[in-house]
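Practice problem 4.
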């Protein structure tokens, strides 16, 4: 008799619509566990973000960092509110702090077109959009976010930092992801997105991309300058397989990628490190629609699927991988056959309607 492998999931709903989209995501995970068995999830809820800061003056307390860091995975909603800020005016963004604290260098942002979600691009090939953007999430142009340099009232400067250590890990991770996709019939191509012709830091990034690539002869190495890739995302995004880039370039490109597949409500993400990983939708707390039941929970539900897939990969547990596939298929079918049009696309399907359509297909 084998016993189910048990995973502790730290749940941090956060603020705004984070709270609204987390509830159905946890419901979906519980439904998958009940349906498939083979693994067991136990959830612990934690308050974190702007709401907590308002109450206690600390958005991400140290004891919470220790608690959630010891969990098997972290599932995060969205954090920060426009009217709650640190005394220096910076926004409250514990989700960014988590990436730095736990060294979550691999920001995985899949963009896959869903049938039934009206494509943004007129070209019929837009239905074939299926790429993964990997955004380095701990350094690059974000290293200066707490210490932008000001020289009097005349000059301001940020620093772009690329390290060999993080880049090597990032590229191994990226090539391996391209290999996993290749095993499932994808092209097996990894595109390095940089500005190597202008910025020495990203020329170094590209150099390490090539060095690490020598160990992955089965993966085709491809290169694109950030400006050209931005244009190609609009002209022919269906040609991409896996892309890897620096933090700020990835921040911008991932919003563009989300736009291509219907909007932020459809864009999941994972931030992966050597030991920990955070799974969360790409979107923010959307104060303009919070409390109205209009938030699209799809991004968070797909992030929960990524969490199961990662648990399956890192623990070699097929039941978890199957759970991820079950969620992906339920989401795809809900939109393909459910006649759902989310509020962000001008329709009337709110959080509950979308969640119920997905849950129905899992049961
Ligand atoms: P952040 O600074 O945290 O990235 P942001 O200000 O860029 O946040 P979001 O909170 O992501 O913005 O919202 C951007 C727009 O997208 C808003 O109009 C919001 O209503 C919409 N939006 C974001 N997430 C969703 C969702 N899940 N469902 C529907 N609309 C959403
Ligand atoms: Mg944003």
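Answer key:
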């Amino acid at each position: 008799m084998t016993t189910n492998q048990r995973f502790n999931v730290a749940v941090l709903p956060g603020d705004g619509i984070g709270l609204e989209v987390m509830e159905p995501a946890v419901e979906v995970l519980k439904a998958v566990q009940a349906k498939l068995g083979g693994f067991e999830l136990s959830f612990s809820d934690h308050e974190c973000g702007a709401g907590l800061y308002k109450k206690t003056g600390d958005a991400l307390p140290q004891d919470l960092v220790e608690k959630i860091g010891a969990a098997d995975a972290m599932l995060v909603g969205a954090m920060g509110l426009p009217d709650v800020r640190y005394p220096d005016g910076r926004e409250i963004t514990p989700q960014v702090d988590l990436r730095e604290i736990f060294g979550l260098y691999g920001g995985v942002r899949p963009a896959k077109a869903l049938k039934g979600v009206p494509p943004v691009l007129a070209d019929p090939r837009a239905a074939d959009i299926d790429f993964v953007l990997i955004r380095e999430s701990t350094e690059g142009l974000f290293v200066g976010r707490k210490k932008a340099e000001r020289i009097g009232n005349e000059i301001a400067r940020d620093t772009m930092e690329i390290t060999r250590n993080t880049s090597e890990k990032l590229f191994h991770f990226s090539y391996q992801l391209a290999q996993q996709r290749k095993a499932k019939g994808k092209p097996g191509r990894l595109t390095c997105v940089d500005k190597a012709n202008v910025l020495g830091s990203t020329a170094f990034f590209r150099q390490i991309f090539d060095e690490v690539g020598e160990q992955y002869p089965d993966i085709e190495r491809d290169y694109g300058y950030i400006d050209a890739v931005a244009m190609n995302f609009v002209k022919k995004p269906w040609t991409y397989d896996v892309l890897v880039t620096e933090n700020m370039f990835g921040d911008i490109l991932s919003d563009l990628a989300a736009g291509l597949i219907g909007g932020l409500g459809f864009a999941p993400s994972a931030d992966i490190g050597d030991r920990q990983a955070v799974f969360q939708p790409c979107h923010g707390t959307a104060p303009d629609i919070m409390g109205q039941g209009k938030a699209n929970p799809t991004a968070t539900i797909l992030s929960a699927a990524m969490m199961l897939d990662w648990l399956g990969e890192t623990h070699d547990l097929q039941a978890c991988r199957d759970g991820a596939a079950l969620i992906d298929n339920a989401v795809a079918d809900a939109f393909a056959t459910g006649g759902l049009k989310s509020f962000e696309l001008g329709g009337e399907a709110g959080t509950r309607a979308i969640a119920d359509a997905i849950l129905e297909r899992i049961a």
